[in-house]
Design brief:
146 residues; alpha+beta; 6-stranded mixed β-sheet; 33% strand
Length: 146
C-alpha cells in the first residue's frame, strides 16, 4: 500500500546551548520542526523562510538556511499520509523574541531529556533530532517514555 504524500519544508533550529526549537500546532499533540507547505513558485528554502516568519517571527534569508537533504517519514497529524520534507538547519544565537503565531499553539526549546515526556513527530525523531544529539541518545530517550 502506498501512502499519499504531503510535501513540506522543515527547519531544524538550534541554539548555542544545544537545544532544538520545536513547535506544536493547534489541535495536535506532536511537536515537530517549524515549516510547512510551499506556495506556488517557491523554492524549498523560500518556503522554509516564509514559514519561519509566519509561525515564529524569525526573519531569515533563504540563503542562510543550510540544506540537510530530503527525508520521508509518516506524517505526524495526517493518518495514512507520508511527509516528504526538504530539510534545513539554522542556528540562532539569541532566541529572544521568538513567539508562536498563526497555526502554532506552542513553541518550545527542547533538550534531549524532554523527548521522554513529549509526543514527537516521526520526521523529527528519525531524521532531524539525531543530527543534534546523536541517533543512539535520541532512540534511548524515546524508548524511555514507553
Amino acid at each position: 500500500m502506498t501512502s499519499d504524500i504531503i510535501r513540506v519544508s522543515a527547519v531544524l533550529i538550534t541554539d548555542t546551548a544545544g537545544r532544538a526549537l520545536m513547535v506544536r500546532k493547534h489541535g495536535t499533540a506532536a511537536f515537530m520542526q517549524p515549516g510547512g507547505k510551499p506556495e506556488a513558485g517557491e523554492t524549498p528554502a523560500q518556503t522554509a523562510a516564509r514559514e519561519l516568519a509566519e509561525e515564529l517571527g524569525i526573519i531569515v534569508d533563504p540563503g542562510e538556511l543550510a540544506p540537510l537533504g530530503t527525508h520521508r517519514t509518516a506524517a505526524a497529524n495526517e493518518h495514512g499520509f507520508d511527509v516528504v520534507a526538504d530539510c534545513f538547519a539554522l542556528t540562532i544565537a539569541d532566541p529572544t523574541g521568538i513567539a508562536a503565531a498563526a497555526e502554532i499553539a506552542e513553541a518550545r526549546w527542547l533538550t534531549l531529556q524532554d523527548l521522554a515526556t513529549l509526543t514527537i513527530a516521526p520526521l523529527s525523531m528519525k531524521a532531524l533530532l539525531p543530527l543534534v544529539w546523536g541517533e543512539a541518545p535520541v532512540s534511548a530517550a524515546l524508548l524511555a517514555r514507553d
